[in-house]
Design a protein that fits this description.
This protein has 259 residues and is of the alpha+beta class. It is built from ten helices and six strands, in the order H-E-E-E-E-E-E-H-H-H-H-H-H-H-H-H. Strands 1, 2, 3, 4, 5 and 6 form a six-stranded antiparallel β-sheet that branches.
């Protein structure tokens, strides 16, 4: 298979990481495609699974100058070389580089014991909502409006008002590729997310799916998320407590009008 599309994505990733001191390493792997970048405290890897048609950006810590191989997925995309092209390549590259330009993942050092009850994820509700743009591009402008109008970002409220209706519509259309893409993002963000993000994914997003549509997404969910959703289902009729509404900031148009 020609992996030139992955070379393009990797080159974009390198443009962000190399100025930060990361070095691209030669790596032998059983994966279909892998590009490794190592830094002082962590390493990033861009990988592609041809069988599942998945491309992912992963991160792990460094131990004695080598990756500790405790890889954690940051973002995962479906890419079909036969039907996808430059538009999808750019979307993936933009997603990866947007995170790397500002992302500071919390890496647990090898051997360090985690507090089982700690809020140990590093992706917050705002980050989760931005990942959902990969499935619902129209969310981008809605997120901008939310950021411009409220501080802090209202993760629960935004999800209920803007994401849930789109998920419901997707379930009704039954587009398998987009449903799988949605599930992949939910899997990744549930694994990487903080407690608020995990609650939003299970109690707000997944519990909004009608029982008759559940099978359409269940087969694509990770074991951890499927199990968490099982325990969240009894809360289907209960509303998640919304954020305390802070004073709305003047919109950009209003601020310009005051000048």
């Amino acid at each position: 298979m020609n992996y030139s599309f992955m070379d393009t994505i990797t080159e974009r990733v390198a443009e962000v990481l190399e100025p930060k001191g990361y070095q691209k390493q030669n790596v032998e792997t059983d994966k279909d495609y892998a590009a490794l970048f190592t830094g002082e405290s962590n390493a990033y890897m861009v990988v592609y699974n041809a069988k599942k048609q998945l491309t992912a950006l992963k991160v792990c810590g460094m131990d004695d100058g080598q990756p500790d191989n405790q890889w954690k997925s940051i973002s995962t995309w479906i890419f079909n070389p036969e039907t996808d092209g430059n538009k999808e390549i750019n979307s993936i590259a933009n997603d990866f580089t947007d995170f790397l330009a500002g992302g500071k993942p919390k890496i647990t050092n090898k051997g360090k014991k985690k507090n089982k009850n700690s809020d140990d994820g590093n992706a917050d509700p705002k980050f989760f909502c931005k990942r959902m743009v990969n499935v619902f591009p129209q969310l981008k402008e809605e997120i901008w409006a939310e950021e411009d109008g409220y501080d802090p970002f209202r993760g629960v409220t935004f999800t209920e008002e803007h994401i849930v209706p789109k998920v419901s519509q997707l379930m009704q259309t039954g587009n398998k590729q987009d449903i799988q893409k949605l599930a992949n993002i939910l899997n990744t963000q549930y694994s990487a997310g903080d407690l608020s993000t995990r609650s939003i994914i299970t109690i707000v997003v997944l519990n909004s799916i009608k029982p008759e549509d559940e099978e359409k997404i269940e087969e694509y969910l990770s074991e951890d998320l499927a199990k968490a959703w099982k325990f969240a289902r009894p809360y289907r009729t209960k509303k998640v407590k919304p954020e305390k509404v802070k004073p709305i900031k003047p919109s950009m148009m209003e601020r310009l009008g005051e000048q």
